[in-house]
Automatic annotation (TrEMBL):
Keywords: Coiled coil, Cytoplasm, Lipid droplet, Metal-binding, Nucleus, Receptor, Repeat, Transferase, Ubl conjugation pathway, Zinc, Zinc-finger. Belongs to the TNF receptor-associated factor family. A subfamily. It is an enzyme of class 2 (transferase). It comes from Podarcis lilfordi. This is RING-type E3 ubiquitin transferase. Its EC number is 2.3.2.27.
Amino acid sequence: MCQSGFRRAEGRAQLSALPSFPPAQLSALPSFPPRAASFAFPSASFLARRRRRRRKLLPRCAASFPPASPGLRLSLARAISTDEDESPGREEGGGGGGGGNGDRAEVTGLRALSGPLRVTMSLLHSNNSSFEASGQDSGCCAAMASSCSAGAKEKSINTSVSNGTGGTLSNSFMEEIQGYDVEFDPPLESKYECPICLMALREAVQTPCGHRFCKACIVKSIRDAGHKCPIDNEILLETQLFPDNFAKREILSLTVKCPNKGCHQKMELRHLEDHELHCGFAPEKCPQCHAIFQKNQIQDHIKQECPRRQTSCPNCAVWMPYEEKEVHDQMCLLANVCCEYCNTVLIREQLPNHYDNDCPTAPVPCTYSPFGCPEKMQRNELARHMQEFTPVHMRMMAQTLLNITNFHGAIPYDPSPSCECSPEVHNFKETIQQLEGRLVRQDHQIRELIAKMETQNNQMRDLKRTIRNLEEKVAEVESQQCNGIFLWKIENFSVYLKAQEEDRPVVIHSPGFYTGKPGYKLCLRLHIQSPNAQRCANYISLFVHTMQGQYDSHLPWPFQGTIRLSILDQSEGSSRHNHEEVMDTKPELLAFQRPMVDRNPKGFGYVTFMQLQALKQKTYIKDDSILVRCEVITRLDLNSLRREGFQPRSTDGAA
C-alpha cells in the first residue's frame, strides 16, 4: 500500500471512533455552496502564511475536542504535518488523486471559514483523496469539526466581550473611537475613508477580501449585523482582521487643520492630539459656572467675568459668589448707609437706633400724642413745639382727665362700704395734684434752659469764626517772616506711600509762604508718581506755584529769581547729605506770571526730583515724616525799570 493510501486508511479508522451527533445538530450546521467557477488556487506565499497560522491555532483547536479523543488530536497533528509537507506545485495543480472539481468546490467553502473551524476542515482536506470514505464517516467528521468550531467561536466572542483589554473593546467604547473626524488639507482621498463611518481610517484593518475599515467600525458591524463583510457580504470573523500598518502610517502623515475655532495651525495627524492638549483655542469648561470658553480666555473669565467667582464684602469680609454680591450689599449689617433724613453716614445695624433716638431731622410724634396732639415734626423742633403748645397740651390733659372723671361718675353708686373712698385714694389724689404742679414748673424751667442754650450756641459759633480768622492771620504773618526760606514738614508719610503702592494719586500742597516782606507768595506741590506712570514711575515730583498775595500790585511781574529745592537728611551725625536741585525761573512761562486765581494752576519744577528707592535708603524719613526745604532768591528786573523810565545811577565815591 502506498504511503497516501496508508494515511487514508488510518484516518478512516480514527474517524470511525468519533462520537455521533443527533440529526438536529447536524442540520443546524452551516452549509457552504460550491463556487468552482470563482475558485483560484492559492499562491506559495499564501500557503506559507497559512501553515504559520495553523501552527498558532493548533493548541486552541486541539483544546476544543473532548478529552476522551486523543486519537483525533493525533490525526489533527499528522494531517497538519502532512499538509505542510505538500509541495506548492501539488497544491496549485489540483492533485493527482481522485478529488477533481468536487475537491476544489469543498476547498472553496473551506477558505470562507476561519479560526478552529478552518483548521479542522483543512485537516479533513489535507489530501486530495481524504474524503473517499463513506458518507457516514464524512458526516461524523464534519459534525465534529462544526461542533469544535462553534465552541471555539463562542468562547472567543465571550472572552472578547468580557475582557476590555485583550484587543477587543466594548460597543459603547467602540462608538466613541470611530474614524478621524477632522479637516484634511488637501482633502482626504477616498482610499483612506472608512466605508462605515465615512471618516478617515482610525486603527486601519484589512479583511481577507481586501477592504479597509476602522477597527472599531468593522468589529461593531460584525457583532451587530453578523459575520459578513459590509461591502461584498463575504463571511468575515473578527479573527480574520489584520492591521493595515501601511495605511495607518500614510494616514497619520497627512496634514490636517486644527478643529478648534480660531486656530489656523496645520500639522500632521499624528501630532493633532498633542496640539489639542496645548491649543489656546480649545474649548474648556469653566469650573465655576460651567460655561464653555476658549482655553486662552478661561483664566480671564474665572478672575474677572465669571458670575460665580468668589469675592469678599469690603465691610464684613464675608466671601460669596459675585452674582450674590448685589443682594448681600443691600442686606449687609456693616455696610455704610446714609440716613434719608439727615444724610449722616453710619453702618446699617445702627440705622434703627439712629431713627428712634439720634436723628435730628427724623419725623417724631408729639410727646402728648396719647392725649390727642396730632402734630408731627422733626426731632430738633420738638422742644420748640413743646414750648409753644404748652397751654394746648394742658387743656388736652385736662379734657382727658375730665372724660375719665365723667366715666367714673356714670357708674352707678353702690352705697356698700366697699365703694367708699379709702384714705389711700385721697392721698393718691393729692399726690397727683402735686405732681401736676411740679410738671408745670419744670416745663417753664426747660423753656428757659432751651433759650439759654440757643444763646450760648450763637456765641460759640461767633467765637469759632473769630478763632479761624485769627489762625489765618497768624499763618499769614508766619509766612511773611520766612524771608524766602520755607521748611515744610510732611507727616504720616507712610499713608501716602501705601496709597502710591495701590496706584492711587498722591498730590500734597504746602501752605503759602512769602519770599520776603514785601515779597511774592509761593507754595510747593509734591506728587508721588504711581508704579505705572510713564517715564516717571516711582519718582517724587516737586513743583513751585505762585499764589495771590497782598503785595502783588507792588511787585514786578513775571516773577524772576533762583529757587533751591531740597529734601533734608534727618540723620543725627554730621555726615548729612541732602538731596537738592537748583533752578532758575523762566519769565516766558505762565507759571511765573501774576496769578489770576488763588493759586496758579501752572507749576514749575522737577518731574523726576528723587527716586522713592533713594528716599528709603538714607534717613530722609524720620518719625514717619520728611522735611522739604525751599530757598528763593529774587532779583530785580532791570528791563522793566528801564521801560518805566528808571535808569541806574552809579554810586558816589568813597567819602
